[in-house]
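Two quick folds needed for the group meeting slides. Do the first one here.
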Amino acid sequence: MPGGAVLETQSELPAATFSTQANALLRKNLVFQRRRWKTSLLLVLFPGLLCVFLFTMQKIIDSENNKASNKCGCACVPRNDSSGACDTVCGVQYSTDRQALTCSVPSPPEVPAMLQVPDARYRAVNFEGKFPGFPDPRCRDSGSCDFVFLYTGGNRSLADATTSMLLPIPSPSCLLSCRYVMFFFSRLPSISLHCLGGQGTSRKVPFSYFLEDALTKNFSILLRDCTNAMGIPCVPTDMVWRDSKQLIEEDIYDGYRRANPESTNTRIHFHHVAYNFLDTSSQNLDLVVYYNSSYRGNVASNANSVLLRVARSMNIAASSFLKMLLGPSTQLPLAFMKEMPKQESKLLINFTLLLGPLFYMWVVQLLFPVILVSLVYEKERRLRMMMKMHGLGDGPYWFINYVYFLAFSILYILFLMIFGAAIGLDFFRQNSYSIQFVFYFVYMNLQIAMAFLGTALFSHALTATVCGYLYVFGSGLLGSFLMENYIEDTNISRKIIFATEILPGFALHRGLYEFSQYALLGSSAGEKGMEWRDLADHDNGLRQVLAIMLVEWIIFLVLAQYLDKVVASGCGLKRRPLFFLERFFQKSATVASDTDDISRPDVANERAIVETLRTASNSSFAIICDDLKKIYAGKDGNPDNYAVRSLSLAIRRGECFGMLGPNGAGKTTSINMMIGFLTPSSGKAFVAGLDISKDMDKIYTVMGVCPQHDLLWGSLTGREHLLFYGRLKNLKGAALDSAVETSLKNVNLFYDGVGDRRAGTYSGGMKRRLSVAISLIGHSKAVYMDEPSTGLDPASRRTLWNAIKKAKQDRAIILTTHSMEEAEALCDRVGIFVKGQLQCIGNTRELKSRYGGTYVFTVTGDPSKEQEVGNLVREWSSGAKQVYNLSGTQKFEIPKDDVKIARVFREVGEWKERLGIQAWGLTDTTLEDVFIKVATN
């Protein structure tokens, strides 16, 4: 619209720059932070308090572990002489299970190298015919199931020849010696050359330095034929060929079912050993051993015990290969296994490292719900929208809040690291401080970006609080019970781990896990933990995690900015999903006009003025609405709802325009379209020459708003509110201080120190006056006020009216009100809305003349004389109309052209006593009468 160019006067200031807006918001945030310094201090010190707690718990645990009852046990052993004296001897045999952990073991026991064999009732069977070659499932009932070795390879004949030597038949003399010496773990070659099987037991062995009863009692010898075992416990064993390793994996892994091992009828398929000879040839043994240690309720549940049995499976395969090549007499004995000697030690439990990443993950993520709720609170209370409507752009808002939360996060993390290192927590002291800081710094940036992203998804602070803490605790628990298993299981694909690390909580957990592991190894070895050079280690996942978090940080920031514009975020118009392409596909929405202005010449004249302004430039008009419409689509077969119908309106600078109408008439909808809360269905609107569909951000810099409900910070004073919004209007220095004091005086908040009290302590009327002062501060060209005097006492209302009258001299003001007195006192023109349409427009005198045209005669007297009073009125005018009658009180409307006021006064005086008139009055039409007449027609 050409008429959009508005000339600046000397009293007007240019729009506040990015730095000015950022400075205003930063000052406000610092003041707000100063008000709640105790809460902030406790939050920052919280990691330190946790570190002190951990330090105290570690000291208590160390003190408990150093008690004499936890040291290596000792006994007084009598001497072999007649003195009766005894010698104090210490060691494992004199200690309890707990004391034995600290004892020296100079000569660990020799443990036979056995192969784990399931009990007969749990051995693999041909269940449902899916596992050919295995025993019939009915063998479980009698406990006679054979144990099966599976094998495959690239050369079957060579594999058959090798496995034929896997379990050689022992000589009778060897079997006879076994009956007497196996119970003592004999290392006779004749025994060690055969495969001993340790069968299942329910006992779990915590440390491999102690022999297990199962190794001495539940042993067997594996033979293909147990007929001539000569009384030695024997397990019949078969060799079954499979055509591929996939079939073997199916038998070992897919056949395993987690079920109740006590029931012999359950679908349990346990298999443990299989061989893949791959490209084995006469010159090369190329072997893969498959081993399933999932057997429930037995020694296999302990890792050390399982390792004792793996060696035997490798030995018998290598031994059979040599026998196949060199002859049956070839021997490859594996007599026993034993641990390395151990010195006496102390019982040490590093409490902080045992807590692991889960605890530190919760501590680090504690700021996430705090930041999220802070941002959502401003959105829910519409404080951000209030700031935006007074000129705060999205750029300064995001920048200052980001820097503010980042500084707070860095301070939080520094306190955590300093306190943790100061009190000696290995998690912090063992690892490089620079690596830790970089990791935490990157994650804090990602966490802030994630909070900004969450702000676009939540509308209520309470919901954001619940979801924020659920995310913190949920991601921590999942990371502890899921992520760690993925990392420690070498069979899990690295791609799966990478996919899980995409979730920021899991990425944090992975980094903390690496710190914990390096600190644990460094602490036990007396060395440093993680250094920068360790990032090159293939098994170190920190480098990958840092890369993921950096990429996600950028993505989350971009996505947060995008969703902030396309989601109903409470901070302005919701834009289309492809708004960034609108400049290439600009379309103007058109809706057919359904108005008839002929019967309303004042409305038609206003429309003609607007049409003239389309082509003629005129800087005196601050607000122009050109055929503005808002239509809500009907649902469930209902017709469309026309909230605003063809609003054409032109308001000059220096004019106060009042919008009157019943509830639901479209007043608030019209204002919401002008201030950027709603998108018009069609039509255009210009504020200070700027199009609301294109230049809303610029319009905010020249606009002031007093919303219907007070949007204030309870922690800020009235003066601080005005200083903040004054800076957004580019007021500085002495001009700012003068404007603030003038505003406080105009709304009667300057005296008695009221302006320096927190807004949270204000009464409803004081908050209302402060909201009006905020809307008027600065040099706004357009001001919107929604029922500004609601809740004010008469004296305060008069003070507020005077302030508005002074302010309208150089700006356009639109206000809505239900007070006809307020409209007459403030408004140069008023418009009455009915059913979304402007029914009339003009100053109050014109409207009363145009829509009134009558006198109102009110009389109170003897009820029995009512008819005579009515006859007297009709003598004055045949067009007189009775509009009210109750208990002797009557009200008549008399056309002004039919009666003279002098006659009314003369004849009422003459007939007063005869008609029993007690009181009477003759008034002109009021604005309220006009309003009622227009609204009800």
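Then this one, please, same format:
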Amino acid sequence: MVRFLLARPIAVGMTFLALLIFSLILFRTLPISLLPPLDVPQIVIKVAYPNTSPESIEQNVLRPIREAMVTLNGLEDMGSKAGSEVGNVRLTFSYNTQMELAYIAVNEKIDRLTNSLPEDLERPRVVRINTNDIPIVRLQVIPKDGVDFADVSLLTENVIKKRVEQLDGVALVDINGRQERVISVSPDKPVLASLGMQESDVIRAIEAGNSELPGISVEDGQFRYYLRLASRLETPEDIRNLPVRGPSGNTVSLGKVAEVRHSLAKPDGFHLYQDREGLVVTVHKQTSARMNDIMPLLYEAVQGFEEDYPQVEFALTQDQSTLLNAGINNLQTSLLFGGLFAFGILFVFMGDYRMPIIIGISLPSSLIISFAIFYFAGISINVISLSGLALGLGMLIDNAIIVLDNISRKRSEGIPLFEACVSGVNEVMSALISSVLTTLAVFVPLVFLSGISGALFYDQAVSVAAILSVSLLVAFIVLPLLYYLFFKGKDYQRSVEDSRLFLLLLKGYKRIYRMVFAYRAGSLLVLFLLIPLLLLTVRLLKVEGLPPIEKYDVMVSLDWNEPINANQNKERVLDMLALVEGDYQWAESDLGLRQFLLYEGDNDIQQADVFLMFENSQQKEAISSKLMRFLRQRFPLASVEIQDAPNAFDQLFSSDRPFFEVRWKDLTSKQPVAVSEMDPWLEAFPVSGWSKGPGLQKGASVIFRTDMKKLALYGLESQQLVEKIQQLFGNYLIADIKRFGEITPILLAGETLDFQTLLKTNYLYGEEGVPYALDEFIHFSYDEQYKFVTADRSGIFQSLTFDTSLSKHEEGTIRNWASGNNLAVEFTGQYFQDRETIWQLVGILLVSVLLLYFILAAQFENFVQPLIVIFTLPLGVGGAFLLLWLSGTSLNVMSAIGLVVMLGIMVNDAILKIDTINRLRKQYLAGGEVPQNALEKALFRAGEIRLKPIVMTSITTILALLPVVFSAGLGADLQRPLVVSVIGGLTIGTFTALYFVPLAYWFMAGKSKLSQPIVQ
């Protein structure tokens, strides 16, 4: 094939150029994302039920929802959490579930449940989790001083949101911090009392004045008209003019007995930017959109907003495209330095400028063509697929150097240029194909990992397969063609192609080779002993999910653990920000209940998340410590967590599940065990080191107990008492004004007094209008109750969480404790899922090793020689572990990718060296050499032939990666563990390929029965 193609250089060149242009066109259409568009198999059903206790939400809302969802196809796990006024049900499905259908099925079941749920409950929201749900940027909308907040809320909802949604590539816009305008009615109690009227008279007047005629029409001859009451309310003035009739028949206008005004609804949450109240708009991209194309449009739109709406200030924060740009910049840096160092190393070793130019053409061409495979495989350009390309670039350089070196060696043997190009490629073709297949055999099976890891590996596996396939195409067709064109008509000169430095290196290699083979048995034993010693260094490494990235931002997560309202929550956060004012660049905070449609975390008025950005890490650490001391001293009951602000990776990989959890259920009552009973049980819990789960967290509460006998004695109905309490302590809705799709609530304004005073100063009226104070019928007490009610598919549970796993003995003692208290106990948590993933990984790696063995056995036509390649892998892995430990780097996702990169290069070198030894042995035996001499000469000569490509590929890869080690920034922090593991593995791997492979070959050739006829 190579001969046929080289005979037609113009046709091949034009075809390759056309493929390159076509790939460039396809590249422009590829979506660019931070992460692959993964369907996380989870759906969250969110419930908002104002003024309702956790127990009531669990009993009346969440339990019916759970019972309805049990029959969903593919449902693996289900859990619910009921808090004060809010609750959620989290559904987890298997990864082969079609989430589009599951989402539809969940909504259908919610619709069927409508009649079974409380009438005043809003329809539960169904939120489907997707990586595109992670916002790419947050737009801050801050009203200037004196500007009405409700007007800015309407502007944001009706104008800014819609203008952002119209931008190309934007899928969804979500808002938090909205405040709606309401009409509040504050009755003047002394005036009402003097007129013999009550608050109920004011409420009835408003209800009557806002009545409508639904669906009533009249006929006027041949015409038909729908009726509309002209007295419908539209403004506060309309309400003030309503007549209020007292029990004695006297009538006054409502404005004389109550104050009616526009105001803001009582907030359940706030959003702050710096120390000012505002709104935040999160922007989510479409799956097929290019993130780098959306961001300029957003910045341009914000400039337009600033001009059009001068009453509002705007700012863009938490731009997630910085992570993507870091990955792209790292790839560009790798290409740039890879090309420069490849040029330098080739020039140093070969002394010819044409070799680097050939590689300089082939590298970017291969990269561009691989993007065409991305297009047809439906893969986006994201951080995961880019890391796969970076993985394959090392192999691509390796293949290029091997092919060029082999062609040059053929020319040095006096073979004509055309034949040298043909035979040089044909000689290494099968070995290169095997090396690519072995790399894929090691990597591709990881796609079958369960969970998000396996889904992410799909993009990486496709990108690796793409660039490795293209590298073979370039190595077999483009490189020999370019070599032929560049060297056509020029005489070969060895002094030009082999520099003095390489000749000096070759001399040193031969000297060490003779020393090693003089004590070959001892040398091989030492190398085998190094394998367990190097691998044991893994026990010294810290294991992490993602490498520690130097960030200048923190997230302060607060739960005050006190029954405070949203305004008090805001005041506390403002006090905290005032303490460090001027020490941070900017801050934003989400307090209380979140209004985001896609928010799936805990929603509680007592919680707050404060995001702070600093100039440097020193300032970040100092201020974080200062804040922690302040919060501990000022608010000792608060739960405080200060950590790096989560980026898109953290949000994707983070799990709400505790590491190890002990759950129990009361078999008798099937309800949470009472606080008074649970506290002594926990004191006798047989294992230490636990933390309370959500179902055991307590909060202060006030309990009203009604004196029903006294109500009956005074001739009062209990419903009167309930309505009065709702009017005093709830956001009592009198009516709604509906006009052109805009709804304005009319609320009864409550008094800002403590509840004891309100009970003493408000009354129920008997049959003859005799007033009775509410505290006559209500007795209150303070008590501690559970803040949350947690449940799974089998019912309500309570739990303790642990940061470490428990032993079998500890599990047994816990079971005995539970049995003694008539509790059913089970153990769950992330630990069990991680253990299952590890066992899957072990099985997959065993499959990978078997695939590797079978491919090599087919390549070498030998069942023993593949073991040499397999034995080289632990040495490389051990070298990577050693350098990771010496440099203080953890074992994480990026360093694991580096291991795969390094193993791909090591396998390549080992395969080619063994292939060369086999070929030379056959040549020497065919020439009449004694078998033992043929083996010795083949080992020595193969070392000479393969020295240049092995050393060049290792040095080129190491030097190309070194700049990342000494660089700073987000991208360098992400890639540094990968670089350290590659450098550590290749340092040992180069020595392994030069000396371990020939030693192991000598040993196995002498011991193997399969090779015995050759050696005799």
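Slide caption for protein two: DSSP finds 32 helices and 30 strands in the chain.
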